[in-house]
Amino acid sequence: MSNKVEWYLEFVDFNYKPAKDDLICLFYFEPDQGISVKEAIGRIASESSTGTWTTLFKLPPRMKKLQATAFHVDGNYVKVAYPLVLWEMGNMPQLLSGIAGNIFGMKAVKNLRLVDVSFPQAYLKHFKGPHFGMDGIRKMMKVYKRPLTGAVPKPKIGFSALEHAQIGFETWMGGFDFVKDDENLSSTSFNKFEDRVKLMTKMRDKAEKLTGERKSAFINISAETEVMKKRAKMLANYGWNYCMIDVVVTGYSGVMTLRDYASDLGLAIHAHRAMHAMFDRNPKHGMTMQLLAKLMRIIGVSQIHSGTAVGKLVGDKREVTAIADVLREKKTKALKGHLLDQDWHHMKSAFPCSSGGLHPGLIPPVLDIYGTDLVLLVSGGIHGHPKGTRAGAKASMAAIEGYLDGRTLQETAKSSVELAEALKKWGTMKPK
Ligand code: CAP
Ligand code: MG
Asked: For labelling, which of 202, 276, 320, 431 has a CA lying 20 to 30 Å from the CA of 104?
């Protein structure tokens, strides 16, 4: 037996040519003091695939075929190829236990960030992706040329089910398509899920009758998986076409189960990303938001929060654009340090959802970034309107219409009192 203790360098090969079915990961890494680049990337490839910290007494014969290979380094970025056979098909948690697992706690790396993953068709084909796609959702809502619009009743939690539904009614009557539950509203003593669904149904029917438009809601079913199924069933029974899930906190398995369950009931899935900033905010460590969005498109949500670049929460224009790309395109093009090439094959598109600190004055810059294929949520920015929710929604709809007609906010405000009042209160301020 040799005296060799470590075998990390066996996981590095700069001449390696990835196979067509390899899964490629792009990491940002910073070796700890005293650790060379080669040692660091060897550890990343090793610990995320087949290796451990030391050489072993006995190895089964297939090890070479299973191991990952760090094959390309560019500054602090490394690409690692993983053979398909390492992975269980259709099992997203297993994949993340490898590529997003132990390696993030290794002492040998000071910082490590999983930037993107390029999935081969052979892996993707075991997932269904979104059930409706952006076209399907537009058809369902009968909204074709403008962004879909929605709002969360604010304060975010505190209303009774009836008060909530009344605010919802005002939101719909102002011209919005959707009313959204807030991420921390599920079923509380003062606003029970069942009561909310029943009252929202009544208000929705009334609003649809009065406006002649399709109205819907993202009602939050987040809970234990069996409870989510029950809640989704109830939504379908009451004629809803959407459910909402806090996808990070309910977890990949829960979302995977609900993807099929909700689709069978005819429900689209609105994915809220609460908790994402715990792992995607530090640009040097964790995992990127564009990758979370990608994983959620693969599993099959219909839309996911993607940031505003100008609102109250983190996420700059580059990130927002990358997220929109991985959700909407048929092929995502590589972007240095941000994205890898991705062909989406059979998978339908999903909507990005821009939300957080928006008001009518910020609608033009958001649409400049996203174009019209998005779900736009303006919440505090309608309920804080000097004349109330309905006027706030009208102001936002006017801002959108004006933008699409090529008018400035000021020009549009001449024919919309509601927009004029909104601009008087907020102008184009960017909240913090
Ligand atoms: C927006 C929101 C959303 C955030 C989530 C909130 O309300 O309801 O949860 O948009 O962030 O509670 O902040 P406002 P993100 O429009 O009143 O800010 O979309 O970035 O995931
Ligand atoms: Mg919220």
From this structure: 320
pLDDT in tens, 210-222: 999 999 999 999 9
Predicted TM-score (pTM) of this structure: 0.97
Find the catalytic residue in 110, 154, 156, 233.
Answer: 154
Nearest-CA residue for ligand 1 atom 6 is 356
pLDDT tens figures, 280-337: 999 999 999 999 999 999 999 999 999 999 888 888 999 999 999 999 999 999 999 9
Report the residue among 377, 383, 430 best suited for mutation to probe ligand 1: largest number of ligand atoms under 8 A from its CB.
Answer: 377
Distance from residue 380's CA to the centre of ligand 1 (Å):
9
Ligand 1 atom 10, closest CA:
356
Q: Is 156 in the pocket of ligand 1 (CB under 6 A)?
A: yes
The CATH code of domain 19-124 reads: 3.30.70.150
pLDDT tens column, 7-25: 899 999 999 999 999 999 9
Angle (nearest 5°) at CA 263 between 262 and 268: 75
307 Cβ inside 6 Å of ligand 1: yes
Looking at the chain, the domain(s) classified CATH 3.20.20.110 span 133-426
Q: Is 272 a catalytic residue?
A: yes
Q: Which ligand is nearest to the CA of 151?
A: 1
What is the CATH class of 133-426?
A: alpha beta
The pocket of ion ligand 2, defined by CB under 5 A, consists of 182-183
